[in-house]
Design goal:
Shape: elongated
CATH architecture of the largest domain: 3-Layer(aba) Sandwich
Pathway: Amino-acid biosynthesis; L-proline biosynthesis; L-proline from L-glutamate 5-semialdehyde: step 1/1
Order of helices and strands: EHEHEEHEHEEHEHHHHH
Largest sheet: 8 strands, mixed
Bound molecules: 1,4-dihydronicotinamide adenine dinucleotide, (2S)-3,4-dihydro-2H-pyrrole-2-carboxylic acid
Keywords: Amino-acid biosynthesis, Cytoplasm, NADP, Oxidoreductase, Proline biosynthesis
Subcellular location: Cytoplasm
CATH class of the largest domain: Alpha Beta
Strand content: 5-15%
Number of domains: 2
CATH superfamily of the largest domain: NAD(P)-binding Rossmann-like Domain
Helix content: 55-70%
Function: Catalyzes the reduction of 1-pyrroline-5-carboxylate (PCA) to L-proline.
Protein name: Pyrroline-5-carboxylate reductase
Number of helices: 10
Length: about 280
């Protein structure tokens, strides 16, 4: 398969994470172009990763392009108005990482015939450890699905969803998830510092515990619950700590994912009012 030209619209945090992962995966810098209004971020990407830096305006796309929309959800109508003709004349595959915005909204902006994939990656993609959920519309060919699979599998694990409504859940869980884990790390570190441990040691212990546990869980066929029981001696320290977590953690996880998924739906509704 000829290498596709990968065109990013947007040069922010998510574009950077994906580009970093793609470059490590061996995609050549000149095969990636980045469009954004300010040269600050795209210039930095060009310097660091050898990608092509372009102004925000649309340009003629080569055949076989994959265009990844990585600007903010609310900017989509204005941005796509400009890109619509180039996308259509190159029959480009359009991939949106925008939270909340549905494929129906995208095809309303680009035309029914445009092949659209929704992708919800996360920032660990920058080190090839991402988790990306994908949803393809009916107009996406099997070859195009393979191309998208190849791109995102290069920056982590890929999960195809067949019910688009669940993209909001995937966003709440994995798109936003790194921030929850990082908050958890901060909270563990702060609690240990409160008990007198120095900050450097507290951070390193918290980090290695989360990292080691995630790696152990990934390498093990036992469920998280079974592995947890292996740590928990009856009447021991873990049981004492877990009793406190159990009071709040599950309802909190439900509320946090519900709030994040609901925000995705609201981002979608806000777009309808401005489209
Ligand atoms: N940050 C994250 O962890 C994740 C973000 N996303 C999605 O990725 C998208 C981008 O999010 P971030 O990178 O966090 O935001 P960001 O604010 O870091 O980046 C947005 C980028 O869009 C660019 N932009 C603004 N107007 C533009 C235009 N007219 N044409 C082209 N580019 C333009 C900005 O210059 C900036 O580079 C959002 O739709 C978000 O929902 C999805 C998954 C995870
Ligand atoms: O916070 C956001 O809206 C984006 C989508 C998932 C992660 N960041």
């Amino acid at each position: 398969m000829t290498e596709p030209q990968i065109v990013f619209i947007g040069a922010g945090n998510m574009a950077r994470a994906l580009i970093s992962g793609m470059r490590q995966q061996g995609i050549a810098g000149p095969n990636i172009q980045v469009h954004a209004p300010s040269n600050l971020h795209r210039g930095a990407l060009a310097e660091e990763f050898g990608v092509r830096s372009c102004p925000a305006q649309a340009e003629k796309l080569p055949e076989n392009s994959v265009v990844i929309y990585a600007a903010k959800p609310k900017q989509m109508p204005a941005v796509l108005k400009e890109w619509r003709d180039s996308l259509r004349s190159a029959s480009a595959l359009f991939v949106s990482v925008a939270a909340g915005i549905s494929s129906a909204q995208i095809t309303t902006l680009l035309g029914e015939e445009t092949p659209v994939v929704r992708a919800m990656p996360n920032t660990p993609a920058q080190i090839g450890a991402g988790a990306t959920s994908l949803f393809a519309t009916a107009t996406v060919s099997a070859n195009q699905c393979d191309t998208v699979q190849q791109i995102f599998a290069g920056v982590g694990k890929v999960f195809w969803l067949h019910d688009e409504a669940l993209m909001d859940t995937a966003t709440a869980l994995a798109g936003s998830g790194p921030a929850y884990v990082l908050l958890f790390l901060e909270a563990l570190e702060d609690a240990a510092v409160l008990q007198g441990l120095d900050r450097v040691t507290a951070r390193a212990l918290a980090l290695q515990t989360v990292l080691g546990t995630a790696q152990m869980a990934a390498a093990n066929s036992a469920s998280p619950s079974e592995l947890r029981h292996q740590v928990t001696s009856p009447g021991g320290t873990t049981a004492a700590g877990l009793a406190v977590w159990e009071e709040q953690l599950r309802p909190l996880a439900q509320r946090a994912l519900a709030a994040a998924a609901e925000r995705g739906r609201i981002l979608s509704q806000l777009l309808k009012t401005t489209a």
